C-alpha cells in the first residue's frame, strides 16, 4: 500500500532511551506525530491516559483484537501493547509522518504490512549502563527491572533485522543520528515521488 506520509518505527530494550529520544525529536520536528498505543499495563508515575498510552483493561484489549482494530500488537514483559489502525492510517493518508515507539515484534509486523516503513533500533552503550538507566529512572519495581534486563538480551539480538541502528551513549549524538535518518528518508521519498523541493533543481533532478 502506498501513502503520502512516512512511517518511522523506533524500538529498543527498556531503558535504552527511546521515549526520551522520540520526545526530543518531536519537539524539534513539527511534521512528525507519535502514535499513541493501547496497553493493558498500569500507568506509572506521571503517565496520563491518552498521552503516553491509552490504558485499557485486558477484556477491552481482547475485543479490539477481535474487531481487528490493531495493525499490530504483541505481548511484551507480561502486558499487551498494540497500535490501532486509526492511530496511524488517518495521519499518513494526509501526508503526516508518524513515529511508532513499539517493540521488535510489532516493528517486524509493521515492516511486513508496510515495506516502506523505516525501522530504527536504539542500543544502549553497555549492559551496565542499561541497568543503571532503568534503576535511575526509578519507575519500576526491582523484579520488573530484572525481567526487562533478561528480555533485553533477546531484543538486542533483533537489531540486525532493522534498517538503522543507533547507539544511545551521548544523548545529543543519538538525537542527531535520529534526525539525520528522518531527514534522509524524507528526501528519498521526495525523489521517488518526483516532488520538487528547490534543493533538487541544482542537481537536475526536476
Ligand atoms: N508491539 C508493540 N509494542 C509496544 C507498543 N507500545 C509500546 N510497546 C513496547 O512495549 C515495551 C514496553 O513499553 P513500556 O511498558 O512503556 O516500557 P519502557 O520500554 O520501559 O518505556 C517497549 O518495548 C515498547 O516499545 C505497541 O503498540 N505495540
Ligand atoms: N544518552 C543517555 N544518557 C544517560 N541517560 C539517558 C540517556 N538517554 C536516556 N537516558 C535516561 O535513561 C532512562 C531511560 O530512558 P527512557 O527514555 O525512559 O527509555 P525507554 O523509553 O527506552 O525505556 C531515563 O531516565 C532517561 O532520562
From TrEMBL:
Protein name per its UniProtKB record: Guanylate kinase
E.C. numbers: 2.7.4.8
PANTHER family with a match to the protein in the record: GUANYLATE KINASE (PTHR23117:SF13), GUANYLATE KINASE-RELATED (PTHR23117)
Source domain of life: Bacteria
Physiological role: Essential for recycling GMP and indirectly, cGMP.
SMART domains to which the protein is assigned, alphabetical: GuKc (SM00072)
Parts forming coiled coils: none
Gene name for this UniProt entry: gmk
Similarity field: Belongs to the guanylate kinase family.
One Gene Ontology molecular-function label: ATP binding
GO cellular component: cytosol
The keyword Nucleotide-binding belongs to this UniProt entry's keyword annotation: yes
Provenance organism: Piscinibacter gummiphilus
Reaction(s) catalysed by this chain's protein: GMP + ATP = GDP + ADP
Keyword annotations from UniProtKB, A to Z: ATP-binding, Cytoplasm, Kinase, Nucleotide-binding, Transferase
UniProt entry tagged with the keyword Endoplasmic reticulum: no
Subcellular localization, as worded in the UniProt entry: Cytoplasm
Amino acid at each position: 500500500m502506498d501513502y503520502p506520509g512516512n512511517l518511522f518505527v523506533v524500538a529498543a530494550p527498556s531503558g535504552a532511551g527511546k521515549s526520551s529520544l522520540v520526545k526530543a525529536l518531536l519537539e524539534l520536528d513539527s511534521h512528525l506525530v507519535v502514535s499513541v498505543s493501547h496497553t493493558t499495563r498500569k500507568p506509572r508515575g506521571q503517565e496520563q491516559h491518552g498521552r503516553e498510552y491509552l490504558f485499557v483493561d485486558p477484556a477491552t484489549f481482547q475485543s479490539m483484537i477481535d474487531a481487528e482494530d490493531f495493525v499490530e500488537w504483541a505481548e511484551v514483559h507480561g502486558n499487551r501493547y498494540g497500535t490501532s489502525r486509526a492511530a496511524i492510517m488517518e495521519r499518513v493518508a494526509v501526508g503526516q509522518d508518524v513515529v511508532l515507539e513499539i517493540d521488535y515484534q510489532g516493528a517486524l509486523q509493521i515492516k511486513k504490512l508496510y515495506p516502506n516503513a523505516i525501522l530504527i533500533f536504539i542500543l544502549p552503550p553497555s549492559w551496565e549502563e542499561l541497568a543503571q538507566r532503568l534503576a535511575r529512572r526509578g519507575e519500576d519495581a526491582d523484579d520488573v527491572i530484572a525481567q526487562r534486563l533478561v528480555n533485553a538480551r533477546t531484543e538486542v539480538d533483533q537489531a540486525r533485522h532493522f534498517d538503522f541502528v543507533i547507539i544511545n551513549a551521548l544523548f545529543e549524538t543519538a538525537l542527531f543520528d535520529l534526525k539525520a535518518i528522518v531527514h534522509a528518508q524524507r528526501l528519498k521519498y521526495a525523489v521517488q515521488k518526483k516532488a520538487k523541493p528547490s534543493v533538487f533543481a541544482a542537481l537536475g533532478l526536476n
